[in-house]
Every structure is written in C-alpha cells, then in structure tokens.
Amino acid sequence: MSDTDTSGRNGATSRRRILGSAVAVAGAAIGTGAVRGFPTIWAQNIKDVTLNHVGGPWAVIKEIGVQASKDLGFTVEMQTTDIPSEIQRALTQPKSIDIFQSEETTNKYLEHAGVFKPIHVNDYKLWDKTLSMFTEGKFPDGRPIPNIGMSPMKAGFWTGPDAKQFAGRPTEWLVMLPTLFNADTLGIRPDLVGGEDKVTSWGDLLEPKYKGKSSLCSLAIVGITDAAMALQSRGEIKYGDIGNMTRAEIDKTFEVMNKIKQSGFFRAFWGGFDESVNLMAAGEVVIQSMISPAVTAVKARGIPCYYAPLKEGYRAWTNGIVPMAHLSGLKLDCAMEYINWYNSGWQGGFIAKQGYYSPVPETAKKFLTQEEWDYWYEGKPAAVDMKDPYGNLEAKKGEVRDGGSLWEREGRISVWNTVMDQDRYMTRRWNEFIAG
User: Fold this and answer.
1) Please, which of 183, 205, 249, 311 could form a disulfide with 230 given CB 3.0 to 4.6 Å?
2) Burial class of residue 425 in the structure, from the number of CB atoms within 10 Å of its CB (0-12 exposed, 13-18 middle, 19+ buried)
C-alpha cells in the first residue's frame, strides 16, 4: 500500500490508521516487555514534523497554530497572505504549502489544478456532527440553503478520489474541511449616519447622501456581488442569477457603476483588513463592504460601528482547510491529525470571539463561557462585558450581537461569494473599473 492511499468505504485502509494501530499494539507490548522504544521513536519523529498552513489573516492566526502544536506534538507554522498570492503560490509552488486555507471561490480557481488531496468523510471524525448546511445543503429546519453563488454544495465535494471535478452535490469526497463561516453585510458608523436604523438595504450603499463616504472591497469576487446587490435593490438592474451574471449583465453593471464612480462617489476601494478598519475608524467612510472581525476591530478602539442586517439578506461564505496533494507518509498522517483537531473545539471557541461561526458548534461551545455562547450564538443580550480573543472589549453588558442569533443571520443568506462562468471577463472589467 502506498503512503498516499486514502481510506474510504471501498475497503482501503489509510497508512495513518495502520500506524495508529501499530502504536497502540507497540504500547501494549511495551507493558509486557516484548518491545522497547517504538512509541519513543514515533514521538521523536512527530516532533520533527512542521506543517506550513498558508492563507488569509482572518483565519490563519498565530494563536491557533501555537495551540495546535501544543496539543498535537508537531509544529504548525502559520503563514499569512492575500487570496491572489495564495492561489498563485498553490499553482506555481504547491509543495511550499502543506495546509491550504481555502474558500469555495478559491477552490473553484484550483478545481482542475490537481494540487488538492481529497478528504474522505470517513477520515474526518466530526462529519456526523457538522452542520447540515455543509453535509446536506439544508438549514436545520429542513429548508434548502440558497444555491446562488458558490455555495457549499457547488464547491464542497469531489466526484471521486481523483480530484478533477466538483460534484455539485454531497459525495464521500470533501474538497475542503469547513472550519469557519459567516454571512457578510454592510458596516456603518451609526454615529455618523444618524443611527443604526438608517441603513436597512444593500441599496443604501449607493445612496447619494453618502457620496464620498462609501467604500467597496477591491477584490472582484466580493466587490462585484456587493455592487450588484445594491444595484438590484435600487431597481437599476434585475439579474437572472446574481451569482452567475451573463456578459450582458456584467456590461450593464459596469456601465452604471462607472457613472457612479466618475461622480466621485467612492472614497476608496479597500484591499485588506486593516485598510477597511482604518477607513471606518477614521470616519473617512461611513458605509462600506465589511467583514465581521473588521467591525469588531473598530469597536475595540472604542468607536461605534454596526453590522447592519439588510432586508435583502446576507452574502455568505465558508472557509476551510485542505491538505495538499504532495503530502505523504508521516507528514500526511500529521496533516490528517491536524484536520481532525481543527474543529474539535479550541479553534471554534477562539474564532467565535471574533464573530465567526464553527461548522461544529457543539465542540466550540465547550471552549466558551455560557455568557459568551449566549451572546455570540444565541443572540441574547450580553450578560457581562464581552471580550475578543485578545482581551479587548467587544460588547458592553446588555448589548445584542448585530443581526441576532446564528440562524437569524445564516438563515437569511441571499447569495454566496461567487466565481462566475464569465469570471475572466468580469475580473478584467472590474480591474478597469477600479483603475479608471
């Protein structure tokens, strides 16, 4: 059997399981004096392993790597980068990455590249405890999740172990292990727009009174969707499928958006987390595309910031981790142990205090106080002051999380981050729009 065999229901057994059994047997033998040293050699070998986990700073966080290294006995090294650079690195230097921090849209760009190692559901111990959004494409109440954009059903499963094509439906082969998810909306400065109730629609992003004070994310796959949601809300354009526009719809979108931009409407197009935080904290913008931890970061500075729930619903996304195809032997074994550790609770509790959700909430709950769980997941008023993972004040006693409970937010998903059939054309038009 090769080091790269993947276990599954066809009767194959992974090298990881063989080695795990060998350790157990050797341990028993040690007790009888029949064998000496095998577990010690195993432990020494584990200590020599380093996994390079590469991805965006919103998920590839030093503290998570430190805790994983402590719990697992080998080293997890966190390396942060932006999405375009990560994709380029995966295509040109795939062996420099062991664990790829991914998202459905990123997965789509790498679908046919052969750089990912499929994960069989049998090799992930918490699949049966994972939310049905990711396993079946359904909300807990049985409603199907929206399939507009790059949903977990469209980009979450391989057709088989050869990792050449997405299945578009649940199979036994995972493209990535979901590790955190959220639903995005618009961030606002309530003190500068007249109150939290002044922004209720995606269309408010393009409201004339915010001229010179509005901002979009510069990343095409995010910015185009936010712009389109705003245009559709205002009745400027009606899309057949906002997550997969036709070329004519793309042209119309940029015809309208270029006119808006040329009027001096946008203050900036932010390209990174810190930039979005600084723009909002300084009051240079009062309404913009935003992610939940950025709102948290602004509030941590003592500045009012609000994540507005919008009547049209949320734009959602899922992040996950992927072992790379080059992994084999002991390093592959360690990668699979890391994958199984990841949703076991510590990481879920840590990211909850940044505003993210775990795909296995019951394990994250074990690493949160009851007050934290009630605030972050249940949408209840904070029973005590809420702190972020670094000890900064996130919410004062009595405050309620923007958007309410987990299912009040996620249950109102309208569209997922997306990669369109016309992605190359859309991206070229978007870059021209940003630069023009």
Assistant:
1) 205
2) middle
Cβ neighbors of 298 (< 8 A, separation 6 or more) are: 187, 277, 280, 281, 305
Which residue type is seen at 54? V
E strands of 29-110, at which residues? 50-55, 75-80, 99-103
CATH number of the 15-175+319-343 domain: 3.40.190.10
- Position 41 pLDDT exceeds 70: no
Q: Give the whole-angstrom CA distance, residue 11 versus residue 16.
A: 15
Q: Which residue ranges make up each domain of the chain?
A: 15-175+319-343, 183-313+412-435
How far does the chain reach from its first CA to its final CA, in angstroms? 57
Average pLDDT over residues 115-121: 97
Length of the chain: 436
Q: How far apart are CA 168 and CA 146, in angstroms?
A: 13
Residue 306 has phi, psi (to 5 degrees) of -135, 135
Q: What are 208-247's pLDDT values in tens digits?
A: 999 999 999 999 999 999 999 999 999 999 999 999 999 9
In the chain, what are the helix, strand and coil shares in percent, each to the nearest 5? 45, 15, 40
Closest C-alpha to 264, from 205, 217, 209, 212: 212
In three-state secondary structure terms, 10 is coil
Domain made up of 183-313+412-435: CATH architecture? 3-Layer(aba) Sandwich (3.40)
Two tokens, residue 359: 């795909």
Q: Give dist(CA 410, CA 337) in Å, integer.
A: 29
- Sorted by sequence, the CB contacts under 8 Å of residue 93 that are 6+ apart come out as none
Measured between alpha carbons, how far is 353 from 357 in angstroms, rounded to an integer? 9
φ and ψ at residue 43, rounded to 5 degrees: -65, -40
How many Å apart are CA 6 and CA 4, to the nearest integer?
A: 6
Say if 15-175+319-343 and 183-313+412-435 have the same CATH topology.
yes
Give the Cα separation of 333 and 217 in Å (integer): 38
Question: Residue 40 pLDDT > 80, yes or no?
Answer: no
| pTM to 2 decimal places | 0.86
Residue that the structure tokens 């859309």 belong to: 426
Provide the token pair at 79: 């390396």
Vertex 104: Cα angle to 335 and 308 (nearest 5): 120
Task: Report the half-sphere exposure of 357 (CA within 13 A, side-chain side).
Answer: 26
